[in-house]
What does this fold into?
Amino acid sequence: MSAPARILVADDEASIRFVLSETLEEAGHEVVAVEDGSAAFEALASGRFQIAFLDIRMPGPSGLDLLERVRALSVDTAIVIMTAQNTFDNAVEAMKRGALDYLVKPFAMAEVKALADKALRTRALEREVRELRREVGRQWAAGDRLVGRSPELLETFKTIGRVAGSDVSVLITGESGTGKELVARAIHVASPRAEAPFAAVNMAAIPRDLLESELFGHERGAFTGAVASHVGLFRDASGGTIFLDEIGDTPLELQAKLLRVLQSGEVTPVGGRGVTQVDVRIVAATHRDLDAAVREGSFREDLLYRLRVVPIRIPPLRERREDIPLLAEHFTARYAEELSSGHRFLSDAAVERLSAHDWPGNVRELENAIKRALVLCAGDVLAPEDFAFLEERPRFDAARADLGSLVTQEVAAALAGPEPEEIHRRILERAERPLIEAVLTHTEGNQVRAAALLGINRNTLRKKIVDLGIALPGRE
It folds into this structure.
């Protein structure tokens, strides 16, 4: 038997009130019985009842009307609707308005006790889920959070605050490593959907032939290997937020289906015939120039307009250098115990060195640099030499001079030959290989990161590596 609860019974029939009260009191519960909807609403508004059995038709507000009012009050009461007519419409309407279940008259006493137990178990589970999600929110706030006080980041904070309360689509842009997913999570945590799921998917990391199934689900037997049905992220995250990272890498044929979700809130699983209504808030992100992609024909203009109701641009770290000391201190405090078994501190000289670096990988690169220094440092204080691996990059003017020399040489050689129209191809062949090799060296062979830095699709990068015969440094 469940723990005792305080239960409200509302019915205009005295016999029903008596039978329910007797049954529930025998089960150890405290029961208050009223004979009309007005008295029931007053009792429910007090917030003192864990369960309520409400007649679907009685003087004053009906049971269905009370469901709407209780939801508006955000009262945490599990409601069972009682009806003398076991019709499909009554059942659907009761469940649609938020009832836990419905009870058809005449009913057995065992059924009443079972429903009371079910209500208490459901409330306990809901409380547990809410607490777990609050804990996740607290961990997010204490760990992976947006850190900084630069004017650029403060504007981002303000925008998050303005859009969090609505369900409009948000498009986050910025270089790789700037924290686009953190902004998406911040919007979710600050929204009314905070206790519902947050689902994140990297559109560039999932093979093209599996991406539709991952997003919209599939039916059993829809394709080879589909041995069981799959719900998909959109249905799994219903009620919450879905974060579509690297939206610019979405295949063109899938963009039309995403547009349909944005327009109608309907998804169709792969191999399915019917549509399913979903309630999700969509936040997307990209490091690409989607306006240019629209002009090139690789991204739908109507989808871009739907996604970019509110745009948020996260500036690269080099444009907000005043945030670097704060971020460095934050990461040092966060990872010191985990990676070096004790407190570690940054010297002023180390902070100066970190602040002078350009951080092409942005906040993610800074975070990894701090981790590396914590693992390798011998003392309690991180000094500039602990960051010696942050090699100086060649100045742009020198790089431009070398590139200009290459172009001059190739133009002269091509004009001296029989096919001057090959100038463009020859220069690309000479420049592309060292460019890709340098980026792959910087990312230690990580092709996903390299493709992001180059601004090309990973599949395109793979093809160029094969065509140019480039050896991969380290592991992929």
In short: The chain is about 50% helix and 10% strand. The chain has four domains: 6-129, 158-315, 318-387, 396-468.
